[in-house]
Amino acid sequence: MEKQKVLVRTLYRKLLTETRRIPPNASLTRLDLSVFDFPAHHGVEDRDTLLSAIRTAFRASNQGDGDSKERVQRAMEGLRSLHGLDFDSLPNKSITSDKQEDPSLISHIIPLTDSKQWLEKVRWLDPLSGTKVATDDVNNESLVEFPVFPLSGPLFPIDGKCLPIVSQFSDVPVAGMEIPLKIFEPRYRQMYNDLFSSRSSSSPTSGVRSPTPTLRKCFIVPFSHPYRSGQFAQYGWLYEIMQVQDVADETNGKFQLVCNHLVTKPVKIHCIVNPQDYETRSTYLRAKATVLDDEQPSASDGLQPLDDLLRRLKYFHSKDPEKSLLLDRLLLALAEGSIWPVTQIWILNLQMQILDLQVEISNTIQIQALKALKTQASTVELQRNVSEEIVLLAQAPHKETLESMLMEVSTLVPLLLQDVSQEKQCQRLCERIEERLRL
């Protein structure tokens, strides 16, 4: 019982601390305090009433009624709700006990533990292995044919049954970025030659519309499925070639070309024209696609909800140097008037967290491997145990967190691209940032 009372007092102080972080003028809009044994119709509309209610609940929990443990559990749930509450966005209307809760107050953010749902929301093309060419799409004269250059493969091992020990990240493509590439594979050297030759002005497939002159030096970069090799998201980016330099002599043949590109517009991919060439690698892939407009709203219009969120989070995390620095970088990126610089900074931050976590896991693996070395009869047996047992053991405490971050890195940009609507893109990005930085 004494331990329970100590826990209640600790919780009480924590609740008061969290409540005092609420801006004085925040609208709590009839916050339901049933978790503190308050009838729902009492509600709370301002910070002072909330503080008073918490103090009353604390006095009630010290009445010696024997249910302190249950009160602690319910109050912990209330604390989590309080910490994630978006005070400024709640509608200013009452919620009474004889009516159901307004659906607009219910958060639709996917919990981090259910991050695989993000994967299900992405629209994926059919896997290239065993795929037959869609004749209707190939012969559709309204579609344009482009070369396809996948720049990254799956982040997870095959079938996603385990997590990578070390992740290899490439640049996160967003509109307006300049991205250099080093070309060494023959099929992609041929792709650049074709794009710069006169043949790029005519379609290789009869009856298919040719690219316009402004698109003849462009190719599609798709987003790969996190753990299925040869499967791409339906939405990707168009890369425009800005500069090509022959460096074969300077690199002793290691690289043939160094090319600079500008990420220009999003594209919707309808089909891969030559899926059979994915496995043979005899030539580069080609796709039929539609080029989409990507006109971003001004920061004072469509991006205002994101600006409000970042400033509100900065207020809550004012005493956390790491989060404050990240939010400053996000706000600076937002000043460019587009969600894409913000998205880039956000994903780069996730990648750094992933690498830090993988370093920690690798250190644990090394320590466990040294311990196992003292008991294993042979090096072969040790290697087998390191790969099958020690790795899984080291990853286990971090698996949920690591998996959710890897999944977000893989799916956030294609999800934003397929939303198309600037309002929906901004809303989705707000959800992702708010959930991670609040919880």
From TrEMBL:
This is Uncharacterized protein.
